[in-house]
């Protein structure tokens, strides 16, 4: 009996459009890229700590190109793919790889267990997968602002996020061995809600929900701005939290 299709929460078309918009925005001098920079630095630190020098690597989602550049400098043969050229819910070609890295990508697929399983199947024996993305606990001030904008009937405007417990279960379901799930916080201050939204768009993290609600009206936007700034410190800035979740698993 065939398994039921996963619910359609995300739109692949909207994800690709957001990535292309981010690529254009990155040409601006002040474009934000701190989340991807943090993830890349963390991956390189992990590989150095375990003294792993993979021969063949697949990097998914790093639109900065920094991770691939560093790995090639260390002698790895690296293939780079993004969500426009790789459907994470389909088998991965040109396997096997000694290392598969996914950055800010698989958290916005409809079939996350399937995407993790495809990455596992793309690994060579004893190969390793690392996936980093924004996890539960991220953007509490933005969530509060969105709820305040439409107090009577708030629309679904933000993505559901994965927590540590769910991530561990997902790795087990995808048949990974020696699973490790850990999280870390990255705090960034903002003077306005508009700047936070701009930073998210710079980094390809705008909404990719399949059923996108209409934009906020003027009154709702005013309520959102006020709710966001209600959490400001004495310098008029709001400290927003990004919780970065990292999943690590080995094939055997």
Helical element count?
8
Helix content: 25-40%
Q: What are the segments in which pLDDT stays under 50 over at least 5 consecutive residues?
A: none
CATH level 1 class label: Alpha Beta
- Classify the secondary structure makeup into a structural class: alpha/beta
Instruction: Tell me, briefly, the overall form.
Output: globular
- The ordered string of helix (H) and strand (E) elements is HHEHEEHEHHEHHE
How many domains? The number is 1
Q: On the 0-100 scale, what is the average pLDDT?
A: 94
Order of strands side by side in the largest beta sheet? 2-1-3-4-6-5
CATH superfamily: Vaccinia Virus protein VP39
State which percent range the strand residues make up: 15-25%
Q: Please give the radius of gyration in angstroms.
A: 19 Å
Question: Oligomeric status of the shown chains?
Answer: single chain
Largest sheet: 6 strands, mixed
Separation, N- and C-terminal Cα atoms = 28 Å
Q: Count every beta strand, where a strand is a DSSP E run of 2 or more residues.
A: 6
**CATH arch. level architecture:** 3-Layer(aba) Sandwich
Overview features:
252 residues, alpha/beta, Rossmann fold, 8 helices, 6 strands, 36% helix, Class I SAM-dependent methyltransferase, methyltransferase, Malonyl-ACP_OMT, SAM-dependent_MTases_sf
Task: Itemize the secondary structure elements and their pairings.
Layout: H1 12-25, H2 34-49, E1 56-60, H3 66-73, E2 77-81, E3 97-103, H4 112-121, E4 123-134, H5 140-149, H6 164-173, E5 177-190, H7 193-202, H8 218-229, E6 238-250
Parallel strand pairs: 1-2, 1-3, 3-4
Antiparallel strand pairs: 4-6, 5-6
């Amino acid at each position: 009996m065939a398994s039921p299709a996963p619910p359609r929460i995300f739109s692949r078309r909207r994800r690709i459009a957001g990535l292309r918009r981010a690529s254009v925005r990155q040409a601006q001098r002040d474009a934000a890229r701190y989340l991807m920079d943090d993830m890349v630095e963390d991956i390189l630190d992990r590989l150095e700590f375990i003294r792993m020098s993979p021969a063949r690597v697949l990097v998914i989602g790093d639109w900065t190109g920094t991770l691939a550049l560093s790995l090639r400098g260390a002698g790895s043969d690296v293939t780079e793919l993004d969500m426009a050229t790789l459907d994470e819910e389909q088998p991965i070609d040109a396997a096997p790889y000694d290392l598969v890295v996914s950055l800010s990508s698989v958290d916005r697929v409809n079939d996350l267990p399937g995407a993790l399983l495809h990455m596992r199947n793309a690994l060579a024996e004893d190969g390793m997968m690392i996936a980093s993305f924004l996890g539960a606990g991220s953007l509490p001030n933005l969530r509060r602002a969105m709820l305040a904008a439409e107090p009577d009937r708030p629309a679904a405007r933000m993505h559901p996020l994965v927590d540590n417990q769910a991530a561990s279960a997902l790795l087990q379901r995808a048949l990974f061995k020696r699973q490790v799930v850990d999280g870390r916080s990255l705090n960034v201050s903002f003077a306005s809600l508009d700047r936070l939204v701009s930073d998210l768009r710079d980094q390809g993290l705008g909404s990719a929900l399949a059923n996108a609600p209409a934009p906020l009206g003027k009154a709702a936007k005013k309520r959102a701005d006020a709710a966001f700034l209600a959490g400001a410190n004495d310098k008029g800035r709001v400290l927003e939290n990004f919780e970065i979740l990292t999943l690590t698993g080995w094939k055997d």
